[in-house]
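BUG: 3D viewer hangs when loading the predicted structure for this chain

Environment: internal workstation, default settings.
Expected: structure renders.
Actual: progress bar stalls at 90%.

Input used:
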Amino acid sequence: MAVALSPKDVARLMAEPSPEVRAELAGKLAAGLSANGLTAGEVRLAQEIVGILARDVAEEVRASLARALRHSPLLPRQIARKLADDVEFVALPVLADSVVLTDEDLIEIVRCGSSLKQEAVASRAGLTEAVADVLVGHGEEPAVVVLMANNSANIAEDTLHRAATRFAGSDRVKQAMVLREKLPITVAERMVTMVSKALQAHLVKAHDLAPATAANIVLASREQGIIRLSAGASDEELRQMIAQMHRNGRLTPSLILRALCSGDIGFFEAALAVRNDIPVDNAQILIHEPSRRGLAAIYKRAGLPEALFEAVRAAVDVVDETGFDGGDRDLERFRGRVISRVLTQVEAVDAADADYLLEKLGDVLVGAPGGHGGTVPASVG
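Structure tokens produced before the viewer hung:
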């Protein structure tokens, strides 16, 4: 017969030899049950023996059976469920892979099982929305981390929002959510305020955030790293991020202007390089060429609005004329000088951009020593 156990094997099994021998025979039987070409009678016989082995007093016998039959569609559901309810050493392979367990089985195990059993369920390929929802509602943190990292799992948008709420204090869950291959835009935009700067940058690159949201993320994450203005080349990571934004239509003129006026000349240089498809070194030479003819040429080739050119030119003028002074709140004062020049010398700034720049200027003034709003201090003008 095609079943791997011979009559002699069955005799050894029924005589209850050592657990090691029974475990060996369990694996041999399971391999036979997983093979093709069994007759209906052979399948029934093998399943009956599997039922006996599933009740064996030795854990190693039951574990051997579970490992060998974890992928078998011929494992009876009631036996699979018995193995799934067993101790973790026995249950985990079946919970992770058995195709005969139903959603109802998995949901009950998530509700009543241990954290390790929840993790095994969360790792299953093609996990359904129903099981994922119960995992988010009842699973412990490690299981929800595994679920979010499982890109084959089907997780409904509402379930993702529930996870963000329930595990708002878990960096591990939030990171796993952000790193999913696909994330609904509503969830991605919500995660913006909940994660680190590095994960915010990933959200911009990997998910289709609205342009305004992307702009705020980029500028907020970049400004923390601006310690001085430089004509040196931007780092490759920045260029890759900007190139990704450009391909997805999120490298907008407003974002470029706002970055420049916020003191991020590196972002501005890399953005114009990407839009012109030239090396950043070349873009820097053209941008900072004293006559500004190079800036005009690279700006036009980038396809940016003509109406914004004078604002960009004014900002670059301040960059080249002043720079950082090395004192306290250096970046804030520099930003104030750039914004003041743009707002006082340029009339064609879009209303939304002007409002943004005024808000940033207000932040500079309020944050200055003794500052509570009012006029621009002499060091800013």
